[in-house]
Amino acid sequence: MGILIMNAVSFFLGNTAYFDISNPDNQGAFDWLVAGLGEIFADQKFMALFSLLFGASIILFCERAEAQGRAGVRLSLWRNFILFIIGLIHGSFWVGDILLVYAMCAPVLLLCRKLPPTLLILVGSVTYLSPIVIYDIVIFNVDPSAIRALWETNFVKNPTEDMELAGLGILYELIARALGMMFVGMGLYANGTLTNARSYKQKLRQSLLLIFVGTLLSGFGLLWTATNSFSTVAIVQGNFANTLGTIPMALGYLGLITWWNETTAHALVNRVRAVGKSALSNYLAQTAICLSLATLIPADWLTRSTVLLLIVTIWWGQLVASEWWLKRYQYGPLEYLWRCATYWQVVALKQR
Question: Which residues is 329 bridged to in the sheet?
């Protein structure tokens, strides 16, 4: 659900708007508010959270497979090869696909899964933050117009040397951010942080503190960008602080959601769980819905405010549909097909 906040900007307003919140021209104060809050609380944050949980799931999947007498590593490799194929298909429709990157990271994670938890967390944090150094080198050796040109288009026929270098920087950032948080997730799962119960009050306090720290860092990055008139260099530099703020904020989100799940019996919790259990189906459905709406809705109607309205509408639809589906079936539709392909057998779909 959180990833849609940023992806929808790319779907409806274009890639440049994804990187530069001053583009397209915001029509009012509420548009600026939506853009600023998205930059502080969503940009990088939910991909980091998703990557963290993906890393933890690699160990969890292998443990469960081996407990059943299966070859966990081999089965995980096959499972992620299927994810790779799904990512290829999805990427042919939308360049922003992330499944391909996740599937490509899986073999590295499997090789490193038995490293000491502290080392995994350290390596993951350094890897996640390393694009700050790489991009610092890029912006001092590349014409900023080359970076913005890559933001504006998905394909450049005859790229300049500066564009190629900037493109490598973007690619490295994507992989390093994903792989880094996956390592952190593996380490937190291995040392028991993700599974050990703590007092609800302690968990809430720690989570709010982490979110506060992340907000300060990301907010500083946004302030730096704004005071430098949203220039290309300022956007890249402001993103450094945003990257620093992402790790504490993602961990804070994780703790806050865990606290909410454990202490609340509201019907909304069940619906959010259902969305999570059918995450692959919902992620790909978001692409289908957004691509369809982008062709139907006139471009003049689209602002950051109207995109927010579309996001909330899609959330509501998926919350209702996911709960309805999982009351009747054990798995989401694509999760079911993925499971059958993983184990080479037809498993029961209907709820017993």
Answer: 350
